[in-house]
């Protein structure tokens, strides 16, 4: 199974350990992983601020770079949602675009839906809170948001539950936004900070020692708030937890 790693800008520049953890997880499962070195930003920051003319060339570049590969996997729900849900504006009708959308996955959904992982080796003896990021939850349908009727499910939670000795804690509002929202955190700084602080307090109140998510952008926002307020909460991408637990087995 050939997998092209799509690593978001902020992970590449600030959290490369998340990209390395993703690589190790996929390689242990026999994937032939490649990293196209010419990849650039997916264009999400530009699109979110209404700069469509700036986002379009990046979408076209993404199609050109990643079309040749069997699968495209990224440790970021928001970036994958950009490709699958928002590239239509720029690429509708282009050769290979429909196939690109169908083969681009966030890491957790790739492990659950494509690789059909049903067991995980190793242990992680910590109390962990899962932040369900908005894009993954509501655009990729990686879990059931509270506003929808139906049986509860969560693909990231399903993977975490396979790890031995992990204790998953339940915040009072499990699918509330962290307040980051990309440029929203700049344009509405006070509101963004209040939302993020509220999320941190909810998880701390539930007893979390470690806070995780499938989006490092959300965790970057929460990490900054927690550090400034000296909150006793570790921040780790879910790929880091999955990799650490498995590496110790």
From TrEMBL:
InterPro entries, A to Z: Cys_rich_dom (IPR004017)
GO CC, any one term: cytosol
Stretches assigned to the Cysteine-rich domain: 3-83, 128-223
GO molecular function: oxidoreductase activity
Protein name per Swiss-Prot or TrEMBL: Lactate utilization protein A
Organism: Blastopirellula retiformator
UniProt gene name: lutA
